[in-house]
């Protein structure tokens, strides 16, 4: 039989199981660090490293936070994947611990807190975003932190958690604007489900004001550059991103982002937040989830955009799971839960981390395309270098996307390559090549596009990787062109691509 809860003096709330929650978070971080050196850079990581060398208050497709982290990590340990990905591992471990703390705020005793944190620890989405440096990693942790702070504010009635939530949200907004949807959805939840007296208190509004002030440099930059983030979002909604999915896939994907066998936990949490009398003060979270689901369905958001709500849903579901373990055949039920956790852990680790040889990772890549995007970048740079050496006249290197440009910037200096140019996202902001006649080496462009802007183009090589992995770059052409049909300054606006 489970031990009775230990209440915090004067609150009636179970005491947070800090030591085991922190230990579980640390274990997740250690697992991620252990797997962080496998395969190679992701295309986004190469992009963040390049953006870190061009620090700004904002970029066309993101805020400054992740490029700043990339620059700091590369300054401390140049070229180290482990150092680059360490912040992500720490953020993922923090997400795990925070999920358990949310369960405590909802009234969950020690076992419920550990169930919630364990479900988060084996969730595919936590391990996938925790393996790579990405804007999604801090975003996931920030959503979980904000929901914990709001749950704490609802329990204690204190104003400080609202202010802290504003700080966390403001920093997250300097990473990516997604958490703004959470703040609006929570506001709708308060208005629709209560407690509505919060709308008359200064602390929630002060927290929102703090977030807005912290976000203001990004807003000012976007306004001054024509709001390119809106174009990026439109491109994602229309399928322009490699990780875009059909709109109908958003809800079914939610069953996979934690684990199919643990989906009953978060689904029970959603239902209980909406219906259970004991959780009535927290019903706003259920309303917020519905609002977010509707908004992301309508706008074509990626399936993982809802992942930040899993912390509070798993926490609420863990309360139900904890009670379920105390009834019926207890050992059988405990065994079923343990099997579900172990099975989820095995599948999630296999999907998220480079545990298989690259040649044997085809099935994994089919389910998690990000793994495939960590393979082959050194080979791409070597292929371009071979064409460059055979092309007289100091050719310009132009790539079709930021991953290719980032790979040439990362591996090119050792191969004698100059910096690459690209019209993709922030690379376009960093300017065109000089207006001088020269040959051009292009990577990943269609023949039709080359005919429109360049002269004398011939395929000189094709991208491949030694592992034979069928990723987005394999088979892409490397063309050698005699020159451009117009000066670069005239071509450059038409080469811009957002998404």
TrEMBL record:
The keyword Cell membrane applies. GO terms for biological process: lipopolysaccharide biosynthetic process. One of its GO terms (molecular function) is pentosyltransferase activity. It comes from the Bacteria. It is a multi-pass membrane protein. Residues 61-221 form the Glycosyltransferase RgtA/B/C/D-like domain. Keywords: Cell membrane, Glycosyltransferase, Membrane, Transferase, Transmembrane, Transmembrane helix. GO terms for cellular component: plasma membrane. Pfam families: PMT_2. Its main location: membrane. PANTHER family: MANNOSYLTRANSFERASE YKCB-RELATED, MEMBRANE PROTEIN. This is Glycosyltransferase family 39 protein.
